[in-house]
Fold this protein.
Amino acid sequence: MSIHLDQYFSIVHPEVTFNITSIRKFINSQFVLQAHREMMPRVWRDRPMLQLRGQMIWMPMLDRMLYQASPLLRSLRELEERDMHISDIAPHDVTRDLILLNHQRLAEMELSNQLERKKEELHLLSLRLEEEKRKTENLLYAMLPKHVANELKEGKAVEAGEFQECTILFSDVVTFTNICAMCEPLQIVQMLNSMYLRFDRLTTVHNVYKVETIGDAYMVVGGVPIPVSSHAERVANFALGMIVASREVINPVTGGPIQIRVGLHSGPVLAGVVGEKMPRYCLFGDTVNTASRMESHSLPERIHLSPTVYQALKDKSYLIQKRGEIEVKGKGIMSTYFLERNLGATEQQIMGLTGCQDDRSGLST
């Protein structure tokens, strides 16, 4: 039976003619042979073609060429594609070791890639965590003074502090009860949100601390939590800005601007954090009650001053009108005043709408 080897295989390496004379010239080279697809069994034709790698050995006594070879494989995947097993390779054949080493290298590369992906995921997670932390801190700083919030974050107990001088402001919306009775809840929320957004901006302009809002009532303080000598001027300028800002808020009942009442009082307070589940920075003392009385006894679109606020502002650049003596619930007869305007500042400056800091020279800092 005569079989020609070149009918079944071709030489891939080295590039020589498939005959004994050419092969003998490269006898010391490794030869790689590849099977012809059309000569393979039909069930193997869809698989990758088999390649053999080995040594050509010339046997002069037999006048024959012996090809000692093994399958040329690089990975376990190639082994599986050819329906072979690692046990099909001779134990002494380095191909077995190469396959296992290559498989180990690929596994290490995949592990390295997975670690890189995890590292990137952790980096992105860290960035998102920092962003959420920043949002949480901003929310906390909006609810509490910064130094108080930092102490709470560190797990420290925040002790109440006494402030000998401060100015407290209360405001409310005139006829708010009637507005609530005649409007949808969503309209009330929109009206209050429009008003509070304007007032909140003014707290930054005049550097006063917003204590809380309850319904339509808005409460701020100057000189707390950081004591300043200009607390009365800051709150007075803020109150003037509130009157202007309220004219931009629409009353859903009348279609015109809302009207607010404002009251101010100066005096000592005790301030501290109350509550655990939703802690708040609160003020306590008779000064708070008196400020509230100034607001409730005020008139629409007027800023009602107690005698202590008048004493703090009378020598400053403010136009103040004496209201006279009135009966104040729980306080008896008091001589009170109305704040008209700041003679040293324009409405633009009061509203913080000027283009540069120098234009705010009429405001206290």
In short: The longest strand covers residues 260-274. The longest helix spans residues 94-143.
